[in-house]
Amino acid sequence: MSQTQQSPAAGVSTAARIVTETTAPAVLVGILLLLQPLLSPGVTWVQGIVAAGFTVGLPFLMILWLKRRGAVTDHHVGVRSQRAPILAASAVSIGIGALALVLLDAPAVLFGEIGGVFIGLILCMAANLVWKLSVHSAVAAYVGLMLLAPLPVFGPALALMLASATGWSRVKLGDHTSTQVLAGHLAGCVAFAAALLLP
Question: Where in the sequence is the domain holding 99, given as residue range(s)?
Answer without folding.
Answer: 11-197
